[in-house]
Automatic annotation (TrEMBL):
SUPFAM superfamilies: Cytochrome P450. Belongs to the cytochrome P450 family. InterPro entries: Cyt_P450 (IPR001128), Cyt_P450_sf (IPR036396). It comes from the Bacteria. This is Cytochrome P450. The lineage of its organism: Bacteria, Pseudomonadati, Pseudomonadota, Alphaproteobacteria, Acetobacterales. It holds the Pfam family p450. Gene3D superfamilies: Cytochrome P450 (1.10.630.10).
């Protein structure tokens, strides 16, 4: 495009952002007013529910992207990890900048990772280091990309279809479908089924909540998570010792870890295997269950997209189905932001009008939800438009710590939902209910 063309396009996008910010401000004022009015006793809960709703967050980010793209607050919004204040980063270019600058903006999870393992860190809690490379490299050998089509996908497809076929046209999605299939995958693919499906689901969910979601560091979240960690460690220690005593030589992750141990691969002693497994199990179960529920919930809100997903599922067109699911998750991802702490004083978006000085110790919330709706990076992000390029999506992180399970996610979510979407008359039989947790516990469906 010519310079005048570029100027006109840049001005048009920014005018659009200003208009969207005005609309968002109005909507936020109305919703905030409604939450404030009514009985004072329920006010706190109403405001918390409003702030937790993804649609509210999208409106707030539309406002921030236009008027305060890198908003600095002296308040510590994340109390669960040491920090000196908060910067909320909302533009796509700045979110990616923060997540790329790993040496300036570090992961903070180490103390909680050590509490979970009763000792060592797990690689998501590490900065770039020899230990990080050692553990990721070893686990990539134990969990290979070619496993996804060969081992993971067929298991999920078969189990999900069997559950839906046997449900009699009604099921509670997390309890009957996603959690049993995912804990089943832990048994089938990892070799760690747990004492029961229910216990594996509860342990991994409690630990995930404590590590990543509980920003306030609540005792009521910490205590059950540490009890779950202790139980899970004990279980894994037993399984590892038993399998080492009687190797099965299968393609299961556990057997592969023990083969690496036998070959003398560093970091693969029993404790190393256990700590790596615990991190991966936590990463898999609650996240994938929540993503499946959110993706389907998003489709059920959009009849045209739902019909397209049903057609794709019936035609076995996995690519078309996946494109619709990623677009649904773009509006309602599992996590709206990723947090990092500034290792030293630095500047975000240097050389621009929105440059922001970030003092050492600041918690930086890199809002991936906002980045995926930034009109400077995406064409008409407010439109539901399946088939955007992969770079439009930041559903499982970005940069060095991008999700280790990304290829598993891309295979599992469509396979889990396909049997439901193939059925006639799929509809909600109740709302998504977290039962007081940040994860879907109930989502009744009928078809
Ligand atoms: C829809 C499901 C999932 C979502 C939404 C999700 C989300 C994420 C996000 C946002 C990150 C980056 C965290 C950060 O940078 O602070 C991440 C990293 C990670 N995830 Fe996932 N995840 C999912 C599934 C999985 C699965 C299935 C596994 C295990 C097989 C897994 C294991 C991990 C690990 C080990 C990391 C750390 C990677 C590293 O430090 O290099 N996740 N995930």
């Amino acid at each position: 495009m010519s310079l005048p063309g570029n100027l006109a396009s840049a001005a048009g996008i920014r005018l659009g952002m200003a208009g969207a910010a005005l609309g968002a401000a109005g909507r936020l004022a109305v919703r905030g007013g409604r939450a404030w009015m009514g009985d004072a006793a329920g006010r706190g809960a109403r405001i918390a529910a409003l702030l937790g709703a993804t649609d509210t967050q999208r409106q707030a980010f539309a406002l921030l992207r236009a008027v305060a793209p890198n908003l600095a607050l002296s308040r510590r919004l994340v109390a669960a990890y040491d920090n000196t204040g908060t910067v909320i980063v909302t533009r796509h270019a700045d979110v990616t900048e923060v997540l790329e600058r790993e040496s300036d903006f570090a992961v903070v999870y180490e103390p909680k990772m050590r509490a979970i393992t009763a000792g060592e860190n797990f690689f998501l809690g590490m900065q770039d280091s020899a230990a990080y490379t050692r553990d990721v490299a070893a686990m990539r050998l134990a969990m290979r990309r070619e496993d996804v089509p060969r081992l993971v996908l067929p298991f999920v497809a078969q189990r999900a279809e069997a559950i839906v076929a046997g449900s009699g046209g009604r099921l509670d999605m997390p309890q009957d479908l996603t959690l049993p299939v995912l804990t089943g995958l832990l048994g089938q693919y990892f070799g760690t089924p747990g004492p029961s499906s229910a216990e594996m689901a509860a342990w991994t969910t409690r630990m995930f909540w404590y590590l990543f979601v509980d920003l306030r560091g609540e005792e009521a979240v910490t205590r059950p998570a540490l009890a779950a960690a202790e139980a899970c460690r004990g279980y894994l220690d037993g399984v590892i010792a038993a399998r080492r005593a009687a190797p099965a030589g299968t393609d299961q992750v556990l057997d592969r870890c023990l083969a690496l141990q036998a070959a003398g691969v560093p970091g693969m002693d029993d404790l190393g295997i256990r700590n790596n497994l615990i991190g991966l199990l936590i990463g898999l179960v609650p996240t994938l269950s929540k993503a499946c529920v959110k993706a389907l919930d998003g489709l059920l809100d959009r009849p045209v997209a739902l019909a397209a997903a049903q057609a794709a599922a019936r035609a076995d067109d996995d690519a078309a189905l996946a494109a619709l699911l990623w677009e649904a998750l773009r509006f309602d991802p599992v996590n709206p932001f990723i947090y990092r702490r500034a290792v030293r004083e630095t500047v975000i978006a240097r050389g621009t009008l929105r440059a922001r000085r970030v003092p050492e110790g600041t918690m930086v919330l890199a809002a991936n939800l906002s980045a995926m709706h930034d009109p400077i990076a995406l064409d008409r992000p407010q439109d539901f438009r399946a088939g955007r390029g992969a770079e439009a999506y930041m559903l499982w992180g970005y940069g060095m710590h991008t999700c280790f399970g990304a290829h598993i996610n891309q295979a599992v979510i469509p396979q889990m939902l396909k049997p439901l979407l193939r059925r006639e008359g799929l509809r909600r039989a109740g709302p998504v209910d977290g039962a007081g947790t940040p994860f879907p516990v109930h989502f009744p469906l009928a078809f």
